[in-house]
């Protein structure tokens, strides 16, 4: 994706909202926090430019997905995490004051939900045993909920920002916006290792929502229409799933939508969505 396309996309929302990092900020509340948010914005944009430059010279091939079906998705859900628990979906959402955990059917019926306090910006999540772990963005904290029904059980500290979360070889695998994936041991929640993601000689940063299938990781790359298919434990990018054609159609029809984000695997097919998107798409790669 060209940088001009990214710039256009970042500014496509109404003038009453300004994007800083991963957050939509009301213009009326902008001035008091201008300096700190500008600093955050510069860091994010620097990583974005670096990542887009790396992808431009990527060695791994690109493939387009085949869309098999679609189901409705709540257009108020700023999707940060998506996974299956049996035949039901677990979705976690972001934005301050709007972050929540949802259990839903494929036809869109919400079976259970829990909301975070307004001071938390929700991120990715994963089901492990009888618990669900739910990350926050900048609070260095993850929450623990019982799987059925949703009930707050506790929390634990994470050492960096939280972005995406999945499970690989009985350990949590977390993205944080860099090219490193942190391996976190359940129980004590200590970092036990890290995996650097590379395409040839280039680092691939801004890894967002995650899904593991055996020893392959699928990761949304923030502010692009790409999903990286990554070999574990090497961190080598094998190919990119290019969703730009469908994502472009969605943005043309629904100007208020945000980026591609959300990957779930039902044991046979993948289900893909985005933040504020009206549909979840069943696809094959």
Can you put this structure into words, describing what you see?
The protein is mainly beta and 285 residues long. The chain folds into two domains: 3-56, no CATH class; 62-284, TolB, C-terminal domain (Neuraminidase, 6 Propeller), CATH 2.120.10. It is built from three helices and 25 strands. The protein has helices spanning 3-10, 34-56, 244-253, and strands at residues 17-20, 23-26, 62-63, 66-72, 79-85, 88-93, 100-104, 110-115, 122-128, 131-136, 141-146, 152-157, 165-168, 171-175, 180-184, 191-196, 198-199, 202-203, 207-213, 216-221, 226-231, 237-242, 260-265, 270-274, 279-284. A five-stranded mixed β-sheet has the order 3-22-21-20-19, with no helix packed on it. The chain has a four-stranded antiparallel β-sheet with strand order 4-25-24-23, with no helix packed on it.
Uncertain regions: pLDDT < 50 for 5+ in a row?
Answer: 1-21
DSSP strand count:
25
Question: In which order are the strands of the major sheet placed?
Answer: 3-22-21-20-19
Shape: globular
Write the element-wise H/E pattern from the N-terminal end onward: HEEHEEEEEEEEEEEEEEEEEEEEHEEE
Number of domains: 2
Determine the fraction of residues in helical runs and give it as a percent range. 10-25%
The DSSP helix count reads: 3
CATH superfamily of the largest domain: TolB, C-terminal domain
CATH top level label of the largest domain: Mainly Beta
CATH topology tier name of the largest domain:
Neuraminidase
